[in-house]
Amino acid sequence: MSAANRFRLPALTPRFVPIWRRHFLVWRRFWAQNLVGNIADPLIYLVGFGYGIGAIVPQVGNVPYINFIAAGSVCIATTYAASFEVMYSAFSRMHVQRTWDAILAAPLTLDDIVLAELVWAASKAVLSGLPILLVAGLLGLWESPLALWIALLIPLVGLTFAALGLPFTALAHGYEFFVYYFTLLITPMAILCGVFFPVEQLPPTLRMISEFLPLTHATALARPLLLGSVPPAIAYHAAVLIAYTLAGFYLAVILFRRRLQS
Amino acid sequence: MALNGAPLSVQGLRKSYGANEVLRGVSFSIERGECFGLLGPNGAGKTTTLRLCLGLADADGGTARLNGLPVPERAREARSRAGVVPQMDNLDPDFTVEENLLVYGRYFGYSDAEVRSRIPQLLDFAGLAGRADSRIQTLSGGMKRRLTLARALMNDPDILFMDEPTTGLDPQARHLIWERLKTLLAQGKTILLTTHFMEEAERLCNRLAIMDHGKIIASGSPRELIEEHIEPEVVEVWGETASEWGSRHARGLASRVEQAGETVFCYTANAAPLLASLEGARELRYLHRPADLEDVFLKLTGRDLRD
């Protein structure tokens, strides 16, 4: 493939919709198991950490620990769901089941397929993040209707982490490869990005690193919204998330073109 | 619709992967309604040729036109009137037979109602009527291949690409696929077939091209290839003393003699002297038959293993 061809901007068209519907149909077949798997883990974290650690650490800032961790739980559940989908599931569709090959025989393109993976992973992330947000509401953890804005933030965080994971999928030769991603990127982010404790607790160097990590900007938006205030610097945090999304997606498309169409 | 001109024509296709030159200038053209076969040992470049024809990879050189459109520039549109049966089954394992077709039809932009109206006919053609709700795992290899064929016919394509369509199937399943392909040809469809089954090529193809090491080394109708490249009669001889008999007698009596393991292949225009000689050699067993495509293939590509 010529260089110009490989680096051309991805074509964003509604042709991705039938592919998205295919993924949705598979999900619907196993929806009960899927939902339980997506929701149970972060819910256990929320309730367990919230009430367990909350009993020892009664206040973070001026709020009970469970109120503090609720926003973090929404963000981390969204992050994990998007990342798992673009790595294990998308890799299996591309490499193991050869679903992508079947799609490419139709009048669709690799751009359509990668866009469908991105949007689908974000959709699954919503299916993980949104229930946590609702449960937090049921537990009385919404301080004001501002919390509803998180329902808009979740899809953006889903897109960001889908786009961040896809380039690694394009480079993977087996499922083992994804362990690196989760161990070296996702786990540090879970610790450094204000999910379980405020980033202000970190030493200056780590805090600086944390400023560059997308999850920090997700929690920076979600937490104030859940605690009843308008977040400072909304445009900045949103811009960082959008920038990661666009850059990750573009890089992914280039790498998939190199892998599959050269 | 580009009804004039060949459904597929390629000129001087070249493709390398690193230092490996997979295609070294491949040219051919397929007429509407014909079955064109690409034959060749493993690694000859057949599958790469198909990928370039469909615009799934860019050639390093040469041009291709599919359904009247330049490929890969307008490959997506060109594929909307092509059907593909891949070498490896890639049906959706989580779906039923019907869901596989429904989902695939949507890829072509058809409405669900449109796809559903086509499904009974497609299942009927594939011999899968009554199996609409079966899960893929419950289908035999032959059924899966027929479903893949039905899926490839979803858009009523003008040209079908079939990459080794009967590899791995038992004879019954293979014959059924051949019958279906003949029906499609009778309907006026064009087929590009890759295979390394000579019988398949001989039965189905109007014309074929034999590929090796990234080049077409011979082409024509099966009959033409046999007449042009090989002596009309073959005597195969085997047994413990076959090789000794071969070097002592056969070389003088046949125009060409080849040995593979314990079997001696004698190619000739007149087998009578060979058969007379064999009358006297009771310990040898032999088979006298007309030359076929496999003889041509082995003569042109050699008897060495390719894997």
Give the helices and strands, then pairings.
The complex is a heterodimer of chains A (262) and B (307).
Chain A: H1 3-7, H2 16-29, H3 31-56, E1 59-60, E2 63-64, H4 65-96, H5 99-104, H6 110-138, H7 150-171, H8 177-192, H9 204-212, H10 214-227, H11 234-260
Antiparallel strand pairs in A: 1-2
Helix pairs in contact in A: 2-6, 3-4, 3-6, 4-6, 4-7, 4-10, 6-7, 6-11, 7-10, 7-11, 10-11
Chain B: E1 8-17, E2 20-30, E3 35-39, H1 46-53, E4 61-66, E5 69-71, H2 75-79, E6 82-85, H3 97-107, H4 112-125, H5 141-152, E7 159-163, H6 171-186, E8 190-195, H7 198-204, E9 207-212, E10 215-220, H8 222-229, E11 233-238, H9 242-253, E12 256-260, E13 263-268, H10 272-279, E14 285-290, H11 293-301
Parallel strand pairs in B: 3-8, 3-9, 6-7, 7-8
Antiparallel strand pairs in B: 1-2, 1-4, 4-5, 9-10, 11-13, 11-14, 12-13
The total count of strands of chain A amounts to: 2
Percent of residues of chain A in beta strands?
under 5%
CATH top-level class of the largest domain in chain B: Alpha Beta
The run of helices and strands of chain B is EEEHEEHEHHHEHEHEEHEHEEHEH
Annotated CATH architecture of the largest domain in chain B: 3-Layer(aba) Sandwich
* Structural class computed from helices and strand pairing of chain B: alpha/beta
Task: Report the sheet-strand fraction of chain B.
Answer: 25-35%
Characterize the biggest β-sheet of chain A.
Answer: 2 strands, antiparallel
> N-to-C terminal Cα separation of chain A, in Å?
5 Å
User: What is the percent of helical residues of chain A?
Assistant: over 70%
Shape estimate of chain B: globular
- Secondary-structure element order of chain A, N to C: HHHEEHHHHHHHH
Rg result of chain B = 22 Å
Largest interface: A-B, 25 and 30 residues
Number of strands of chain B: 14
Oligomer category: heterodimer
Strand order of the largest sheet of chain B: 6-7-8-3-9-10
Enumerate the spans of chain A where pLDDT stays under 50 for 5 or more consecutive residues.
none
